[in-house]
Amino acid sequence: MLNPREYEHPLDKKALDTLKDTPGLEKLTKEFYKHGLERVLRVQYTGSYLKVTDSHFPKVKEDLKEVCNIIHLTNIPDLYIENNYGINGFAVGAKKPMIVITRRAIDWLSHEELLGLLGHEAGHIKSMHMMYHDMAQLIPTMGDLLSGSTFGVGKIVAVGLEAVLYYWYRMSELTADRAGLLACQDNEAYIQLLMKIAGVPKKYYKKIETEEFIKQAREFEDFDYNSLDKIAKAATIMWQEHPWTVLRAHEIIKWIESGKYQELIEKHGKENIDEIELICTCGAKLKGNETFCGICGEKISTR
Predict the structure, then answer these.
(1) What is the tens place of the pLDDT at every residue in 144-175?
(2) Contact (CB, 8 A) for 302 and 278
(3) What is the pLDDT of residue 247?
(4) Cβ-count burial of 126 within 10 angstroms (0-12 exposed, 13-18 middle, 19+ buried)?
(5) Are 142 and 135 spatial neighbours (Cβ–Cβ below 8 Å)?
(6) pTM score > 0.85 for this model?
(7) Which residues of 38-63 are buried (b: 16+ CB within 10 A; e: fewer)?
(8) Which domain holds residue 82?
(9) Which DSSP category does 137 fall into?
(10) CA 49 to CA 79: how far, in whole Å?
(11) Neighbour tally for 299: CB within 10 Å
(12) What is the pLDDT of residues 196-238, one digit of tens each?
């Protein structure tokens, strides 16, 4: 079984380690479940979007099943379609994950590109990103909980935790991009997906020049090494949830050229992958002797 640790981006892991060491996180997590905020998200989305089933948009459902089979995600999440003009997707729900993709993604993406998008979101679920992802989406709501006297976390700590949470959220996208590429197994298609997300006009879809976008991504690498530019970039994206699309392209290209992506493709199906960590359905890492999770109260499981 494919283990998400095999393709985890190092910036994702580093940011997650920092997040877990940030004061107030454990209390925030418990408040998240105490107030049923995941259910709030689920009600919001299931009450607004069209559900994809075996009989309702069956081709899209088959695409999701194909993706889950390729990246070894055992439990197929619910899938919904959002009436949105952009090309996008997102996943929510730690206990009961669901994926939402936009109508434009279905209308305008090729089969391979759609697999990449679905694989990206399924990758978030497989890597157990969902608990902290949901918390990041509800930061405005949870801000009062963070700074409230009953919660016991000061405003300065709350702001610091919010910044660290958003930073990890962005870095988790780099791991999910790797899952998306593994799902579609088409380098060109995944780069084209990122280009379309970045804003390529539809009338130019048949004339997409991936070479120019790749060149732009390589130029971004040189730009990034300037310390003053790093400071500027940190200031401009500190509160954004997603990293720049060109940065994502740069990182996926580096991964392909490192040979690690091809190694995983060739290793696919072999049984020499490391043992999977013991985890809760909410994504919390466990010591190994628990019957129930101390955060959400659910029984432990492995994925």
Answers:
(1) 555 554 444 455 456 678 888 888 998 999 99
(2) yes
(3) 87
(4) buried
(5) yes
(6) no
(7) beebbeebeeebeebeeeebeebbeb
(8) 4-199+208-301
(9) H
(10) 10
(11) 10
(12) 999 999 999 999 989 999 999 888 766 554 454 455 455 555 5
Task: Enter the tokens of residue 182.
Answer: 């593994």
Contact 71/2 with Cβ under 8 angstroms? yes
State the total domains in the chain: 1
Q: What is the pLDDT of residues 238-291, one digit of tens each?
A: 555 566 898 899 999 999 999 999 999 998 744 333 334 455 655 566 665 566
Residue 202 has which token pair?
């539809």
CA–CA separation, 45 and 47 (whole Å): 5
The answer to whether 224 and 230 have CB atoms below 8 angstroms apart is: yes
Distances in Å between the Cα of 18 and the Cα atoms of 76, 121, 165, 189, 257 are 30, 23, 9, 33, 28
Q: What is the DSSP string of 47-100?
A: TTSEEE-SSSSHHHHHHHHHHHHHTT--SPPEEEEE--SS--EEEE-SSS-EEE
